[in-house]
Amino acid sequence: MTGKGERVRVVGWVNSIRSVGGIVFLEVIDGYRMQLYTVVAKRSENPEAWRAASDVKTGSAVVVEGVVPSKTISRRGLEVHPTRLEVVSEPEEVLPLDPSEKTPALLDTIIEHRYVALRTLKQRAIFRIRALAVKAARDYLESQGFVEVHTPKICGAGAEGGATLFQLDYFGRRAFLAQSPQLYKQMLMCGLSRVYEITPYFRAEKFNTVRHLNESWGIDAEMAFISGVEEVMKLLEGLISHVFEAVKSKAEPELRALGVKLQKPRRPFKRLTYDEAIEVLRSRGLEVEWGQDFGSDEERALGEAMAEEGYDAYFIVDYPWSAKPFYIMRRGELSESFDLDYRGLELASGGQREHRYRELVENIRLKGLNPEDFAFYLKAFRYGMPPHGGFGLGLDRLVMVLVNARNIREVVLFPRDTQRLTP
Q: Does residue 109 sit within a domain?
């Protein structure tokens, strides 16, 4: 914390300018922290710094050297009286949005000019919290013995079939952008017992919702030698709780800037069976057929029902196998799988995988896929593949929850959807 009378050096951008008589007030946001400075240049104290402050334009990049006064007149940010003010770069045109946030900007404007929007406290808070969430997740998984890995993003087969794959020409061969690291992280269970990856997903669906993007980021984990799917859920529950606790304890200025009062979800998370979820939905007037996956309307209704019971976070377990991918272990008509929802928003899905070679081949056939297309993957299951399971957690959606965002595009720097390929 900077003390009164201390000399400081500030690098950042001028967000607003106000002149009163012989005094110029510049609001400067620094280059990296959640810190605003009010640079108070008085003609009587330092004529040279005052002239520089009088001529500066909103949006200019500046270097300020000065002193924190013993008595302040500014009510916003840390006050600095400059001994030197250097303008290192001026804008060529009027800024596309108001960095002081006195005039709100539309989301489309923010996305189009995110690099300028990051001069605001709210935008900066979102992405500082995102970075902290990633660090907290990495710290937690490594404390549990997980090794970070990096799997290919150009693949010869998709984890969930071809309908949602971006196809590309790979030197005359058909290839795809990875939907997830699912197949590769399972293959690694043949030689490592705990791995995780923080990774992009690519899905070629024509999404047009506030919950979906065509390029998104996830936190994937896989663990071997498990006794059942409950082990995986406990790991995910611990991870979510740790991230919430880290953000709440370490991001107080960011949460304050966003007006968010973050509370850790109640533990243990509720376990709600698929059949119980169907009953809840039907009791609330939604027509749901057994075997279907839940859409946004169903998820929201379940979120309201769970909130009435005092649960923000809850697992939906015992899904029909028909609604799950081929790599999930079957249990009759049901599966050893789960979804994790938070207040009506699906955050993660996971479960125990089928580790037995013959059963896995049969699963692939039952889903209408060709086992030959997965030969590279299946080969790993011939060499002593242990029981294993894992999850894929949507990082973007997790950040939505942490910052109370309504649109996933708010928490992604440069979102990619059906309309956006730039910036």
A: no
CA distances to 76, 222, 232 from 141, rounded to whole Å, are 40, 11, 12
Nearest one of 127, 40, 193, 75 to 411, comparing CA atoms? 127
Which one of 43, 113, 138, 211 is the catalytic residue? 211
Domain assignment of residue 420, yes or no: no
Q: Distances from the Cα of 121 to the Cαs of 137, 175, 400, in angstroms? A: 24, 42, 17
- Residues 77 and 178 placed together within one structural domain of the fold: no
Residues sharing a CB contact under 8 Å with residue 218, sequence separation 6 or more, in sequence order? 180, 198, 199, 200, 201, 392, 393, 394, 395
Active-site pick, 128, 203, 343, 353: 203
How far is Cα 232 from Cα 101, in angstroms, rounded to an integer?
A: 43
| 236, part of any domain | yes
Tokens of residue 210, six digits = 């506030």
Q: Specify whether 59 is located in the same domain as 128.
A: no
Task: Assess whether 101 carries a catalytic annotation.
Answer: no
Residue 362 has pLDDT above 70, yes or no: yes
CATH number of the domain encompassing residue 78: 2.40.50.140
Decide if 130 is catalytic. Answer: no
Let me know if 203 is a catalytic residue: yes
Confidence band, pLDDT 50/70/90 cuts, at residue 156: confident
Q: Judge if 239 and 292 occupy the same domain.
A: yes
Q: Closest Cα partner for 214 from 263, 240, 178, 250? A: 178
pLDDT tens digit sequence for 42-84: 999 899 999 999 999 999 999 999 999 988 877 788 999 999 9
Q: Please indicate whether residue 211 is annotated as part of the active site.
A: yes
Expressed as residue numbers, the domain containing 49 is 7-94
**Domain total of the chain:** 2
Task: Give strand ranges (E) for 68-132.
Answer: 78-89
Q: Domain check: are 88 and 165 in the same one? A: no
Is residue 128 annotated as a catalytic residue, yes or no?
no
First to last CA, the chain: 37
pLDDT at 2 over 90: no
pTM higher than 0.85: yes
